[in-house]
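User: Teach me something about this protein's shape.
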Amino acid sequence: MWDRLAASDPGLLRLTAGLRTVAAIALTLAVLAVLRVPVPHLVAGAMAAMVATFAIREKQRGPQAVTLALGLPVALASVSLGALLNRWVVIGDLFFVVLIFCAVYGRRFGDRGTALGLIGFQIYFLSLFVGATTSALPSLYGVICVAFACGAAARFALLPQTPAGTLDRLRRAFRARLAQLLATQAELLDAGPDDAEKVLADLRTGTARLHEAALMIQGRLEDGVSDPAVARLLQRRIADAEIAAERLGLLLLTARSARRTDTLTLHLPGAPLPTGSELPVRDEASDALRRDLEALRLLVLRPAGEASGTALAQVRNRLLGYREEENLPPASPAVQDVFRGLGEAARAALGLRVAMEGPQDESDDTPATARSREELDAEDAAIEVSEESEPEEPEPAGLQRPTTRAAVQVAVGSSLAIAGGELLSSQRWYWAVLTCWIVFLNTASTGEILVKGYRRLLGTVLGVVAGIGLAALVGHHTWTAFALVLLFIFAMFYTAPLSYTLMSFFVTAMLGLLYTLLHTYSLSVLVLRIEETALGAACGVIAAAVVLPIHTDRRTNDLLVTVLDRLADVTRGAVDQLSGGAGGDLVEQARALDQALADLRAATQPLTHPITPLRARRDTARYVVALLETCAYHGRSLAATAELLPTHPSIAADPRLRGACGRIVHNIEAIAAHVADPRSGAETETGPSIASMLEPGTLRTPRYGRVTDRVLRHLQRLDEAVSGLARPLGVAGGPVQPRT
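Assistant: First, the predicted structure itself:
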């Protein structure tokens, strides 16, 4: 159960965020209850504690403490201005718009600027929500100070979280997700025609979740590991394990099919499972495959302290033995490839265990296991930490700067929301402003804002229905209502990264309880909440579409060009190194490619959302993203193989690979040029397959044949995927040009 929890919530980040916020609020309520403050001040304290907890984004404890200390005077100033300006409607509204502009503009100053802006906005909103007056300011000051102190106690004493601890939990989550993926791959062996499509969908999901965990680890390495060499080693081992697991899934799919499975099958939702199978229903080889997949899963899951003993050593030795040709069982070539993939996955799991937990017991090693350890040790010793950093791209100036544009858009949208909200209700107009503010958070295009507004409205409608029922049940039982509020706050933070609709549902249900506590609950209030939410979302969409708009097509095109540029860098660097040159820092290049692809995948959500009316466009977007994921897989695999070149005895450099790769890089650059400017006239090149462009020779010698075949296969698949990208993106093709 713990492994399942770790896999579903990598690093326990959502669980920690929810528990920490609930602990801060509960502690605040306990202190204020002892002081016998009135219920409106209890509500204000709970909201202030929530803001003081979730606004802090830094990963190191020192910067967190500084931001929290700076946030207190910002909160006190904000609640003071809210109480003072509440009597002057026009001046108060104008100041609120200025505050919103400054809060959003503060994002350009990093996590601290974002946190202080968020605190300023939310505490001003709090003053409007509880109806703060100048006479109540001294008591509100005390409440806010208590809330910030309790937030600090929850963060630094009750539920402390260090970068090293978070990284350790993320590594455990990666291992748990890897084991889950291996379990799904085992299910693929026995899946019948009726279950095959479901298992294939689970396989796609498991592969994507493993990749997500790998990206999360990469994002935490700099803060969680003090030694750059150790961080680079862990990064490489994570990448090796991810590639080995993905390759094993592809080999299993191929073994289930009468022909080689295209990598796109693993990345394109809805792609059919190839028919036919080379896997016998039951024989010695298939039984061994089932047994060894389960053995590999258990080895991945077993901690170092429990991974000792002769039996486990024998299992590990048997799996690593499949890297030797003489240990492969008699079976069809496709099934033997699966056993080879098992051996490579076992090697990756061994390297991952050593990188995570240090040296292991070697007393029961067979010669095959000893060779794998020697290879890993040689690779570890060859790791060099690059001190060079890529020059940062200059940030646009003026209104083209993203933070400035977003601040202007939010200010305009909030002005519209204030005007419309005042027409709906002179008392609760601020709900429209809050919705307008929220739909702009973590969005960068009109389409993203539209989807986020729709999700918030849907969650609000459902939350209103729940709020009506809860208000009738709870009535005026103050502490029962506060207990439910804490439960909903935990659920809100736990579900926020998963579903914005669910988060909005819990927020609205919680607000229904808060209105009950403030004795302002009525059905008309909750209906007004829906109306104000719809108005705020509409104002946000209008502002994003009219004021300095960033259309979804433009944003996705910009991100697509970035992905293609990163793909060209990885491919060029990997092939240069495989050809005998210096390929640069391939690990960092592969990481940059993965991050760019993750950004593109998030930006295409408005295009692939189920409610989009443009079905053909949705299918095209999914197909392009799936092709790019296929390209990224082959690019990562080439980079991983190239990284082994200096230390691996079975890999030899061959200068002819550079010439064979020229067409791939040219086509990637041509597609990027066409996406950036459709009038560029760039054309892709077509010609014979990559393998046929190379003459028989050293690439076909028995010593280097297997690894070289893998390199050629990755290049061939990458060439096919890049050519496939040209068609949906409308890039013209031409004959292959002669190259030297």
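Now, about its shape. The mean pLDDT is 83. The first helix runs from residue 2 to 8. If you'd like, I can walk through any region in more detail.
User: That's plenty for now, thanks!
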